[in-house]
UniProtKB/TrEMBL annotation:
Keywords: Hydrolase
Keyword hit for Hydrolase: yes
UniProt entry tagged with the keyword Hydrolase: yes
Provenance organism: Streptomyces rameus
Residue stretches making up the PPM-type phosphatase domain: 463-671
Superkingdom to which the source organism belongs: Bacteria
The name this protein goes by in its record: SpoIIE family protein phosphatase
SMART domains linked to this entry: PP2C_SIG
Length: 803
């Protein structure tokens, strides 16, 4: 909790940026163990709650919608209306209205928390913890909900005085209560202020008044957040820039709808308002814009307020369609009817053929301006009845798209504005082209990342494992880090972590191939060094210049031992039951894909109950200002100080403050020891005439020592006789008989060197001399099957030893 509080305090203290909400939501993934976190707020239509921002896995994995009716029965709507949180587990969700929308039977829990009082929206988090969100997780989510919400100042009647920069405006009467700091900004004394909003609006620069009125008029402001910069007149000197952040709260319970928020001095941010400075600011913002939406936000911020425009649309040109990516304002009613008729999901998809004037401007490739009263087709005329500017966005010898800027009131275009528009168009076109390519690759690698990493970890006999993955926030959001937990035969478990060189689609693809290959080699029953050696040869055979590092641990859950193989990867870190942590000094080989004849030595480990194994990638322990050794030492210290009883919280704590310039993968396993260890015996079958009889004698002697009932012994002797005989007759090489007893379940298994599985005959005639053995095994056993074992196979059959 303390780490979460520190992280959230740091984020909320920063200036407001377009990505701050997403960064706050990411804390739910780190500290509360959520797999998805999103904010639902009312849109222009208060009857709908829309997803404003999200982080984590796609919402569709949990059957979540993009919007919900505010009057509906969904948990989002209920929390929005009541202002009371909901904590829903898998049972409650299975009975909910959206249960059928979940694409697969995923056991997950959902937390829905209000953002302040009723009607202010809500925070939704989904997690895959079997027990739902714990006490600490819930406290962390409550912190995040408070950090997401715009602070709502208390009424002056409740506290006696508002904070310095706060205000609350009653929408029915226009009465406003303001803090002393706001009155000082407007140059009004407390004694002379009459409490009317018109008194403050009268100090506003006339050109900025329409934009400010759109905020304080309830018909033009959606319930939720709004931020606006405007100018006020001063007795001496140039106008002062102020920044308003507000939230419209619906009325209820005898109280009117209220606009609440803060007003702060923004003059320091507006020290230079020349057109040259605006172009420079736009160029700086576009240089760091990673996505198409980032480009759109930068254009809106740079042009709409300086030009006093009423609407801006940024669109990409795809064949004959104008695919709009950013609209400001975003409400559909603010745009032409033909655009709304072509509405797809969130943004319109307008055909260029419906706007021949626009098509002609795009063919000319230069900025066009139409003053008020120009005769234009409705699709364009309704964008700017008081004036319209169309900016073709050139990039790389072609058109990347177009920017439309419209005014409602008649607007006179000055020469400097035309120069500003022309310069902005060239900058925006290049940025849009880069961002489109980035978005395409980002979507590809994001899809690869979601599909190639494990959705969930398996339940382990005698152990608990958790994993975390944090994508890089620099450039593309995925890379080549991966982890895996692979259940193996005889209560063995393989822990795998690796890192493919690079951060692009190629690295993500290769990561998936390596993870699949290691899983396949492990399932074949190979020893750990052979598994890694096979993966090395496979990577060398691929036509790639990339290499990969890997750490592979084969853990015997019954004996509490492990074999560790490293291929150029970081050492594992062990936390012993007494709380001491050490960085292991295991032997290692080179990275995968470097040397054809590389050797990968195995290092044995001893695990006592309570031991925690930590495997990670270098993104967690290496930064530009700290070397690898220092990072590993820090990881060991933090692991030693953690409480291993709550492994998920340990993982979250270790990720706190992780450098996000690289991917981070973390895999933790706490070895508890098996409560019930199986009884096991093995017998090497010699190829002698009496081999089957010797195997039966060994089986009878062993099962009597285990107090297995006689009728189960008789069935077991039949199974052993058939399986051993088949192995001796149809295969060559060594044959081994293995027996294990767990509770009342007896497993008989015969391993040989032939990879071909026995075929069950569909029918057997009276004259047939063979083929009945497998039918007999199936008849007397609960289940039977085959598994690969190091180049051969193992045929097994299970019996229930009833008394």
């Amino acid at each position: 909790m303390e780490r979460a509080e520190v992280a959230l305090a740091s984020l909320t203290a920063e200036p407001v940026t377009p990505d701050r909400l997403r960064r706050v939501l990411e804390q739910a993934l780190v500290f509360a163990g959520a797999a998805f976190a999103g904010v639902y707020t009312p849109g222009d239509d208060p009857a709908l709650l829309r997803l404003a921002e999200s982080a984590g896995l796609p919402r569709t994995l949990y059957g979540l919608r993009d919007c919900y009716p505010a009057a509906g029965t969904s948990p989002v709507a209920e929390v929005h209306r009541t202002g009371q949180p909901l904590w829903l587990g898998p049972v409650e969700l299975a009975d909910g209205p959206d249960a059928r929308r979940t694409p697969s039977p995923v056991a997950f829990s959902v937390a829905v928390l209000p953002l302040g009082p009723a009607g202010a929206g809500c925070l939704l988090a989904a997690g895959e913890h079997p027990g739902g969100f714990g006490t600490d997780d819930r406290s962390c989510l409550e912190l995040i909900a408070r950090a997401v919400a715009v602070p709502v100042p208390a009424d002056a009647h409740d506290t006696g005085e508002l904070p310095e920069d706060a205000f609350t405006l009653a929408m029915d009467t226009g009465r406003i209560e303001v803090g002393a700091g706001i009155l000082r900004l407007f140059g009004i004394g407390r004694e002379s202020f009459d409490g009317r909003v018109e008194t403050l609006l009268g100090r506003t620069v006339p050109d900025d008044l329409p934009a400010l009125m759109s905020v304080v008029e309830p018909d033009h402001m959606s319930i939720g957040d709004r931020e606006l910069e405007f100018r006020i007149l001063r007795a001496a000197g140039p106008p002062a820039w102020l920044r308003l952040r507000g939230r419209l709260l619906p009325g209820g319970g005898g109280r009117p709808a209220r606009l609440v928020g803060t007003v702060a001095d923004a003059s320091t941010l507006r020290s230079d308002v020349t057109d040259v400075a605006r172009v420079q600011r736009l160029a700086a913002a576009l240089a760091t814009a990673g996505t198409v939406k980032d480009v759109g936000r930068a254009v809106v911020a740079a042009l709409r307020t300086p030009l006093h425009a009423d609407r801006i649309a940024l669109a990409e040109l795809e064949n004959d369609r104008l695919v709009v990516t950013v609209l400001d304002p975003p409400e559909p009613e603010a745009w032409p009817e033909v655009w709304r008729s072509e509405w797809r999901t969130e943004w319109p998809d307008a055909p260029v053929r419906a706007m021949p004037t626009l098509a002609a401007a795009l063919r000319e490739g230069r900025a066009r301006i139409w003053p008020a009263g120009s005769v234009l087709e409705p699709a364009l005329g309704e964008v700017g009845p008081g004036g319209l500017a169309v900016l073709p966005l050139p990039a790389g010898g072609r058109l990347a798209g177009a920017c439309l800027i419209g005014w409602d009131s008649p607007h006179d275009f000055a020469p400097d504005e035309r120069a500003l528009l022309t310069a902005s168009a060239a900058l925006t076109g290049q940025a849009l082209l880069r961002a489109h390519a980035f978005d395409a690759e980002h979507e590809l690698v994001g899809m690869l990342q979601r599909t190639l990493l494990p959705r969930r970890l398996p339940r382990l006999p005698g152990a608990v494992a958790v994993a975390r993955y944090l994508p890089t926030t620099a450039g593309l959001e995925v890379g080549g880090d991966w982890y895996d937990v692979i259940p193996l035969a005889d209560n063995h478990v393989a822990l795998v972590i690796g890192d493919v060189q690079g951060h692009n689609a190629g690295a993500a693809t290769l990561m998936g191939q390596m993870r699949t290959a290691l899983r396949a080699y492990a399932a074949e029953g190979h020893a750990p060094d052979v598994v890694v050696a096979h993966a090395n040869r496979l990577l060398l055979d691929m036509e790639t210049d990339l290499f990969a590092t890997c750490a592979y641990l084969d853990v015997d859950m019954e004996r509490g031992t492990a074999l560790c193989v490293r291929a150029g990867h970081l050492q594992p870190v062990l936390r012993h039951p007494d709380g001491a942590a050490e960085i292991l000094r295991t032997e290692g080989g080179p990275p995968l894909g470097v040397l054809p004849q590389a050797e990968f030595p195995m290092t044995p480990l001893r695990l006592r109950p309570g031991t925690v194994i930590a495997l990670t990638t270098d993104g967690l322990v290496e930064t530009h200002d700290a070397d690898l050794d220092a990072g590993m030492d820090r990881l060991a210290r933090e692991l030693a100080a953690a409480d291993p009883a709550h492994l998920g919280l340990v993982a979250d704590a270790l990720l706190t403050g992780a450098h996000r310039g690289d991917d981070v993968a973390l895999l933790l396993m706490r070895y508890d020891g098996m409560a019930v260890r199986p009884l096991r015996e093995s017998w090497t079958v010699w190829r002698v005439p009496e081999a089957a009889r010797h195997a039966r004698r060994f089986t009878r002697r062993t099962l009597r020592a285990w107090d297995v009932p006689q009728h189960t012994v008789d069935a077991a002797l039949l199974v052993v006789s058939e399986l051993v005989t088949n192995a001796l007759v149809h295969t060559g090489g060594p044959v081994r008989l293995d027996m294990s007893l767990v509770g009342r379940r007896l497993r008989l298994a015969v391993a040989d060197s032939c990879p071909r599985s026995p075929v069950q005959p569909t029918s057997i005639g009276w004259e047939a001399t063979g083929g009945r053995g497998i039918l007999l095994v199936e008849a007397v056993s609960e289940a039977w099957g085959t598994v690969p074992v190091s180049g051969g196979k193992q045929v097994w059959a299970d019996l229930v030893a009833d008394g």
